[in-house]
Amino acid sequence: MGRGIARKSSKHNAHRTDERPGAKGMDSLNERAWRVAEQALAQADELRIRVHHSGTGARIVDCGIAVPGGWAAGLVLARVCLADLAQVHLYVDRLQDRLLPWVQVATDWPVEACMASQYAGWQIQVGTYFAMGSGPMRALARREPLFERLHWQERSDCAVGVLETGKLPDDAVIAYLCERLQVPASRLLVLAAPTRSIAGMMQVVARSVETALHKLLELGFDLARVRSALGRAPVPPSAKDDFQAIGRSNDAILYGAEVILYTDAAEETIEQLGPKVPAAVSRDFGQPFAEILARYHGDFYRIDPLLFSPAQVQFVHSTSGRSWLFGRREWTVLAHSFFGSERGP
User: Among residues 207, 208, 331, 195, which one has the least CA distance to residue 260?
Assistant: First the structure.
């Protein structure tokens, strides 16, 4: 991982830096997410979520650990993760002979929404507590080399994040976050949900565009050349445990996600790198993710990194209008993962 670097000298990249959130009076990523979270807290009973307060005054929102949560809570989690720089929609479509919810994300700020905010790149470990951290608080912490590649600077007096975890953070975790984020506890707001919950599964599957952008970054593509993006993926049925939930959520992206990227990159760059983006280029492609993970004895780092991307990616050149479609969906693998069936649609 970490092989690709967005071109620092790109004039286009510098132009996008001037336009991005936090510049020219636009609210920062964290301020945008803060508004979404505040609105959700005002509807906590309707969303079936619960607000807790740490001993130091941070707000911790349970979206599916000891409360039901649900579809509406999942939409909130996705919007917070994306710093409210994307439209997130839920609708119904078919897989095989079953109906499934699908989550669709559309954004005109793909790098800011998906990479600077949504990407689950912060491993938060305090004592025995562990959670994957995503959302705009990452841009304040800058714990990941990614932000150097993006040349991103976030300024905000508040911090908002999403924790993928089955346990609410305690005061020690909150103290750790406040120290890394350099905000008082009263200006910290975190939302938490396990992957196996409805809301947790939704916010993971809403990462179709993010996974495409991350693969492009690894391939050395200048992400500033992606002007708009849209992606969709099926939301799997409820899982019996975290292991099954992780498997199904990954399968939803690897074998079912479809992404459209509008770009002004050179056409020869698209033709060269485009075929390398979908998950099908990986040597591990073709089996349910849970089986792949079991084959590597639970070690994520032994899995081919080329696997982690959407099933299909379509590039559309924003000037010429030409389009290229790469990759393929694997309905049979999805049906086996979701329903225990070998039949395709």
Answer: 208
Print pLDDT tens along the chain (345 aa). 232 222 222 333 323 444 566 555 578 999 999 999 999 999 999 999 999 999 999 999 999 999 999 999 999 999 999 999 999 999 999 987 899 999 999 999 999 999 999 999 999 999 999 999 999 999 999 999 999 999 888 999 999 999 999 999 999 999 999 999 999 999 999 999 999 999 999 999 999 999 999 999 999 999 999 999 999 999 999 888 989 999 999 999 999 999 999 999 999 999 999 999 999 999 999 999 999 999 999 898 899 999 999 999 999 999 999 999 999 999 999 999 999 865 444
End-to-end CA distance of the chain: 34
Please choose, from the candidates 112, 325, 118, 75, the residue with its C-alpha nearest in 3D space to the C-alpha of residue 223.
Answer: 112
CATH code for residues 11-339 = 3.30.1030.10
Q: Where are the beta strands (DSSP E) in 236-311?
A: 258-263
CA pair distance 239, 259, nearest whole angstrom = 25
Which of 339, 85, 34 lies closest to 191 in space, CA to CA?
34
Residue in 118, 121, 130 with CA at minimum distance from that of residue 204: 118
Alpha-carbon span 205 to 61, nearest angstrom: 20
